[in-house]
Amino acid sequence: QVVNYAPFTLLPSAVPSALFEQAYAVQQDFNLLVDAISQNKEFLEHTLASTIKVDDFTAQLFRIHAQVLEEGLAQSVFLGINRSDYMFDCGVDGTPALKQIEINTIAASFGGLTSRTAAVHGQVLKVLGKSEEASRLLPNNPARGLALGIAKAWELYGSPSAVVMFLVEEVQRNIFDQRCIENELWNRNIRVIRKRFRDVFEKGSLDGARRLYMDSQEVAVVYYREGYVPKNYDQQNWEARLLLERSRAVKCPDIATQLAGTKKVQQELSRPGTLEMLLPGRREAVARIRATFAGLYSLDMGEEGDKIAAMAIADPERFVLKPQREGGGNNLYGEELKQVLEKIKDSPERTSYILMDKIKPQPTMNYLLRAHSPLRVSECISELGIFGVYVRQGKEMVMNEAAGHLLRTKATEHADGGVAAGVAVLDTPFLV
Ligand code: ADP
Ligand code: MG
Which of 210, 220, 84, 111 is nearest to 156 (CA)? Predict the structure, then answer.
């Protein structure tokens, strides 16, 4: 095994404080929204209808979702941990605006590691003789916030001998991030086990009340840090996923909440009237959410989709083409966007993508420190994420919080082609 330090910027990056506050202020609204979508069977079905015709992965998730509803939910406590990501778009007049990139509703990571980055950057600033600036870095502890959500769900599940199960990857590449959260749970005397889908397939079972057992140990909460991309699944892993979803255990997230985080859902949310339908009577929340939306466009078959495809082909620099995938490195930009759209513009395959306005932040200079990489100054852009945590018991929200933030920074040099996965590093906001 190889242990590497997580990559980070040498210096914290400037973030406009008004936008930072705006991102925190809208997080509870996003928690409510995701939770509302997850409970709206008709909306999910209608929204994902075109996608599941062409995207096998989403279709398989949807089949499990439908099957679990058909049988009737055994689960009565729901735990959501999400991260809403933003960039600061520079309008024509140069004023930055907060624009959402996406919301991650499954396996949203780096809440653990980023709980340590403010201390790293504070130290760097002190060494540079900037202790006043160091003292202005905000404390940030999403590991604790996420663990409090898990602990609440565990408590409401109501079986003190039951454990929390982290569902982890076959090859573990981000274990220390997860350990930060795990340790917070042990500190509260909650037992944690780490298992893969394969272990669940081999050793998982349900009793008559659909309580979940691993070997003979009851599981209260399943926290997925896996299961969000097609390559996480073979036939056995799909069976394991179905077993987990059918169980009474609190899944973080349940499969409906995972579907609520798809790019197709994000795009449909931007249609006039959709937010109002999902959050009735919450006009202010709707306005706060909508203010963060960039232009999003459907490529469904039909006249509307034809027009959008033609618009993107004519001006590819204005847009990003996004497939229904998570995990980074999948989006298409510029010339490549144009070529792909030209090829698929008349086929249903185009409905496996959405189109989005490209957000254009003001670049800044920083050093990106990563193992085995030369040290040099790069032109960079940053992406701010806010962690959301909520717990619902039956119909009642018992916790709804913003649990901390994450700043990731990447070099622009690869950008106008794809900002490939793995180029971003951990950062700390310095509010200005
Ligand atoms: P994933 O689920 O793969 O993380 P994202 O929507 O977060 O998908 O896109 C991956 C990366 O692509 C983002 O981190 C961001 O750097 C870039 N990106 C995504 N959408 C846009 C956009 N509309 N404008 C500019 N960059 C974007
Ligand atoms: Mg992302």
Answer: 220
